[in-house]
Amino acid sequence: MKLLQIDAFSDRPYGGNPAAVCLLDRAVEESWMQAVAAEMNLSETAFLHREGRGFRLRWFTPTTEVDLCGHATLAAAHALWETGFVPTTTSIQFYTRSGDLKAERQQSWIELDFPAAPVVQRPPKDPMIPKLEAALGVIPLFIGESVLDYWLVEVASPEDVEDLKPDFAQLAQLPCKGVIVTSRSQGMRLHSGRQGDYDFISRFFAPRMGINEDPVTGSAHCCLGPYWGRKLKKMQLLAYQASPRGGVIRVRRDAERVILGGQAVTVLEGMLLA
């Protein structure tokens, strides 16, 4: 079975977020997929096989299956087009635990049609808030949560986002799958040297899912898109995820959906022998 490693949300090798993509010829056992994901030891490994007019798609971290993953979906679409499984002029339909997802090529970019995951504010007197503040080492401007079981934390500046040094052991004790830390960034130069007309930046931490920091997180932008779109009164946004690898995401709000745009580069291709 063909296996590729693809750097998603990047236009160059060794940037963005790496994902493994396993192109299957049939459905396989869940335990085997989990074992392969642990062997790959990347934040996500995607498994897909033909089903009806599209492809059944599942995502696994090294320790568990997840309901939604943006960068591994981007990588899966890139793999299908690059290997010739699907003509480059044809859109791709994925059947997943989060419903039907669609991928389309827009020149060198790939657009993913994902469900929006709006954020609602957590109660100000929530006893978990002091623990979150201690784990992050910052004072939030806003704390919310989404249906994806992610907590979204807005802080005062891009520097606060980039300078974060979370206590992952404390973060892992919080009752959520992941924590998004974000700030507005229009017109501001980032510590990383990146300069662009980014509307907001973010980082994503998920130690409970076996991922201390995810390099670039598509599913987090299903929360960030509606949040910043509403605050900035914009339907289209440009985002930067400020992990050490970094990545650029286009975000477009579309009713109850979020259109995520990104680029991808294949860095490894081979065959699974067992």
TrEMBL record:
Q: Which Gene3D superfamilies match?
A: Diaminopimelate Epimerase, Chain A, domain 1 (3.10.310.10)
* Keyword Isomerase recorded: yes
Q: Which UniProt keywords apply?
A: Isomerase
Taken from the record, one Pfam family name reads PhzC-PhzF
Q: Which InterPro entries match?
A: Phenazine_PhzF-like
Superkingdom of origin: Bacteria
Indicate the family of this protein: Belongs to the PhzF family.
Q: What is this protein called?
A: PhzF family phenazine biosynthesis protein
Source organism of this protein record: Phormidium yuhuli AB48
